[in-house]
Protein: Protein phosphatase
Organism: Cuscuta epithymum
Amino acid sequence: MAVTRTTKRVIREYGNPITMNYVQTLLLMGLARPSSTKMVAGAFYIPKHNPSMPLGQDSHFILPGAHTVGVADGVGGWSKRGIDAGIYARELMRNAVLAIRRQLQSEGSVDPTAALDEAYVDTDEPGSSTACILTLVDDVVRAVNVGDSGFVILRGGRVCYRTPVQQTRFNCPVQLGRDSDDSSVAEEIEVAVEPGDVVVMATDGLFDNVHQEELERLVQEDAAGGGIKNPGNLAAKIARYALRNAINGEIETPFSVESRKAGVDPEAVGGKYDDITVIVAYIMRPSKKRRRMNQ
């Protein structure tokens, strides 16, 4: 049974992965499709140290030929019941990849919303998770998002779009799961992009610990550097920066600011130690040879 989208947001803005241990990156090669732009992506994952959950609770994938990426963040509250929500997140992303594979074989294109719908239905593990899936179609990124994972788009080193955070209350994201919400809570997003734009998709381990202006500075530094750009290297730089902030108890972070606003801790300072997943994708023109083949 198809689910009905309860919220829809359509926004148009005009104007080889580096990994750590336990990274869950699924690479699906050979499923390329013609496009006037291409997306080159790399990822970096830093799992929160926890001997009982060595894989952490984040999961992600990159499908290079399909110009599609995704992240999920298992909700940590399940650990109080002895459940590792990271297993749910990994199964959700695995099922999303399988759904996308079927779409490409039958339709030749990616529908992020349908992929997340199918992944939700096919995931039977206990737990719950946030989720974000994004694909590039010509000069538009199409995405579906649930919870406080998400992405930003930077143009000229400045954020020109950011996904809204979905929370039921402070530090409690909207989430997918058998005992939580279904995929009808997902928000659909379309944003026009240009060659030169940078997409940064991440779990809240980034967004809770790095201010927007800090992220902009990191992307600007990457753009100013010489040599061939590697999105995996930038993802690693951003993730490590987020980790430094997360374990610093004396700085002001987005998490401490929001904690004070919510009245949870009027004197809150410091970061939030968490799993950190960062995917960086460069929006680029295809090679001249590729463009001639598509004409």
